[in-house]
Amino acid sequence: MDQKDYYSILGVNKGSSTEEIKAAYRKLAMKYHPDRNPDDKGAESKFKEAAQAYEVLSDTEKRQRYDQFGHAGVDGSTGGNPHGAHGMNMDDIFANFGDIFGEMFGQTTNSKRSGRSKRSPEPVRGQDLGKEITISLKEAYLGKKYDMAYYRFTECQTCEGKGAKKGTSCKSCEACKGHGQIHFRQGFFMYAQTCSTCSGLGYTIPSPCSGCSGQSRIQHYETFSVTIPQGIFDGAELRITDKGDAGLYSGPAGDLFIKVHVSPDPKFKRVNDDLVCTATLTYPQLVLGGQIEIESIDGTQETIKIPRGCPVGKEILVVGKGFAKVRGNTRGNLVVVTQCHIPKKTSTQAKEALLEYTQLLEQEENSASSVTSFFKKFLG
């Protein structure tokens, strides 16, 4: 009985590439797969027939012999089935072409078992950690050294991050051959489950380190000083490299992120990079002007000039005495906002002096009503 041409079975021509042949076989295998055609002997026959054709045409050496000698070049020799398609064994089909069915049904097969096998743990980067601190506005202005204290994982010094006792090593899991999964077939489908021997790691540690129980790191209470830069603002975040948790099995350490909160100050406030405060002056000082000294947030004395006829709420700048810019070499300004001191109680002599001053203003500016009403509010 004449055998069908393998190229015709798959629906390809002799010049087709390996990928084209594989695609054609996948299409037929999906169409005639026994699970999709239960109790259909015709479909089963075509399924086996396509598998036999693919077995030959997917192999470069067999395909060359087939192209040269036809069926005689492959029947009864390396891989050809002398009994024809109907005599093929289903187990052989799934074993030989498991990758095809794994791709078709989303299964992991023997040839694609989660990459290469593992003989030892792979280094894993440690977790980043986050801390929050609170400093005063003065400390934000000056900068400071802040002592941090916290728990974090550090590399085990007993095994130097290896996880195994010195003189021993990790081994590839014998149960799963280092793949982390156990594969089995039920009917026509292939399944995988996590290896219980190694918990899916792919390796075992026969002699774990006594210091870390094979974990390669231990928890440690650590203290160190961190520099809070001048000019740091509320809500800023500092990143301290390698001060997070140590990595697993000599992996790199994570980083420590410090969020800085700045508490308010009763006398000063920050506006952008400016340091703002108030100066309470007497009415004569506002009228006549002059020089006064104020104490800045860092305790230094600054002399400022009050202009003659200074209004309440005027902003007087002391250039370069504000907050340092975190990124850059410049500073903001010290901004002094003028206020007027209005005494609640005055002596008889002070009242008389104010009334006399009011009368002088009436004469000089001819504005008695407005000025007199201003002072009457305070003289009563």
Can you describe what's shown?
- The protein is of the alpha+beta class.
- The protein has four domains: 6-106, DnaJ domain (Helix Hairpins); 129-262, Heat shock protein DnaJ, cysteine-rich domain (Chaperone, DNAj Protein, Chain A, Ribbon), CATH 2.10.230; 269-340, Urease metallochaperone UreE, N-terminal domain (HSP40/DNAj peptide-binding domain); 348-379.
- Helix content is 27%, strand content 24%.
- It has helices at 6-10, 18-32, 41-57, 60-69, 90-96, 98-105, 137-142, 283-288, 348-365, 368-379; strands spanning 129-135, 144-155, 171-172, 181-186, 189-194, 203-204, 217-228, 237-240, 256-262, 269-271, 274-281, 290-295, 301-306, 315-318, 334-340.
- The strands form six sheets. It has a four-stranded mixed sheet.
- Strand 12 (290-295) and strand 13 form a beta hairpin.
- Helix 2 packs antiparallel against helix 3 and helix 9 (348-365) runs antiparallel to helix 10.
- The longest helix is centred in the last third of the chain and has 18 residues, at 348-365.
- The termini are far apart.
- Residues 77-87, 104-115, 367-372 and 375-380 have low confidence and may be disordered.
